[in-house]
Amino acid sequence: MRILSKILMAGLLLALAACVSSRPAVQELTLYQEPVSRLAAPGVADGLVPLESQGAAASQPRRSEPVRPPVAETERLGTRWGEEIRSPIRFVSLTRFWPDRPEAQVTIRYDGRRSAAMGPVSTIRSLPVADGTVEFSVLGARGTPLRLTPTSGGDLRLQGRSGNLYRLAFSNRGRRTVEVVATVDGLDVLNGRSGSIANRGYVVRPGDMLVIEGFRKSEDEVAAFRFSAPDDAYAANTPQGDPRNIGVIGVALFTLDDPANEVVANSPRPFPGDAPRDPRFAPPPTP
After folding, report:
1. Prediction pTM value
2. Range of 224's domain?
3. How many domains does the chain fold into?
4. Is residue 286 part of a domain?
């Protein structure tokens, strides 16, 4: 009997450990604040498990979407407001060493055309920051990095396919905490407004990896990035968007002063279902 109880107890402990390990990792955002500078920059095998969620399945879209014909590979691509993915965050109060000067900046232009690569093709781009580098990649449908091709203008080119999911991945190989400000189709991935280097971003600490899976809807969820026809892109279906910016991803990195990593607690709300939309995050596209 004792042996049986020990076996049952061991099984219970293993089950608890599995539950804990499958919980989504909590990402960190720097606190929103007024811009510190007026110099703003211009603005079906995809059922993947988010890297941060460590096994938690992405939830299905809340409303049905019309079936659209696939976009020809020679056409332009945009990024649509995809299905809901759980991605919890918390806020930290950190400041930039150089508020209006990114230490690294990269532009990725994407479309559906097949690449006739003239230069070296890679899947990871090393971006230099203080005391190290941040490795940047775009993860495709199966979580593997997509090919990035340098252009003659110094940007990177990415080939997408309509309907496919993608994510932006950052691995901090340096010794300083870094802030990542990212835009898709000219829109900030956090607040859905016109992209600016004055906007605050995600935090990635030394030795950590950050994966941005979509436009942030709330403190708990994002809307997945999925390649789409330009007319279906989020930027074409929200007042903050400009269709002329469809087909481009922007990344800016800043080094943060990180002495204490103070976590800002959220106040409990008695009627959370009646709370207005949080202006810090992206609003859904216009019907």
Report:
1. 0.70
2. 23-33+75-265
3. 1
4. no
